[in-house]
């Protein structure tokens, strides 16, 4: 899955933001606020949203005739990386200025060579000033959770008379953590992204009955720097589609409060709350009104370049560790007889047509 002569790699730093087009922008906007985004700027038919982290924006929603995923943007290490992308990736745009976007900066856009979805590279964005000193206390509805203390059986950290009290509110988004897509040719997609960029597979999954790889969870190779277990994943299926975009929130209390907020607002839960195996994140997936899937996550793994690729067969146990739901996502939507490859490959294609019944054991009343 690697080329004989690999080009010089374009060095990525982190995920930056995603673009979505909605036929009903008003409904999408209401959901995004309830999900925990903060509106940052409106330009024509576009709304830019940020989290409470340093990124100038993490989600851009546009009004359009049909719903559509407009791609993910990654920050590159230098302007030279932008130039390299523009000059060497087939069909890549010239470097252009993000004139209307919060934070400004420069960008190169190209189309994925296999399935044609947009992919953006940005550099020079200005981070939000005073993000912690000025904004955090006001934006986090339960005060400053960075200073929460916990009492464990043999390690009581919270002083006498200090209580844990929370109020109902959305789970505020901190940053864009990862994006996943279903692709139609896994080997070609894998070769392109791992040879052109510093994507490195944390996990490679093959089909249970063969050694044919069809799914990967990629992190960024930043040397000894600690990075998230994955920031980009893709798997092979019959038709290209975006799988989901995932956003980090602060901690489990915040996440469950956000889950309860969305539930009481009448939105459709997709899967969660539970804990993954690969990456270890506590996850909570929701459908927006356009039937795109967004995830809140907390407590993900960190890796550096000393951790080798884990190669394994796909299995139900390898996807998640069931925690708070009465039955598993796969059982609830497809039945036990469904092959795991079909489950992964048809997540969004099938689940939107399923009638789901979920029992929440972690509701905040």
From TrEMBL:
CC terms in the record's Gene Ontology section: mitochondrion
Keyword Amino-acid biosynthesis attributed: no
Keywords from the named record: Metal-binding
Alphabetical GO biological process terms: L-methylmalonyl-CoA metabolic process
GO molecular function: metal ion binding; methylmalonyl-CoA epimerase activity
Keyword 4Fe-4S on entry: no
Boundaries of every VOC domain copy: 175-299
Name the UniProt record assigns to this protein: VOC domain-containing protein
Source organism: Coleophoma cylindrospora
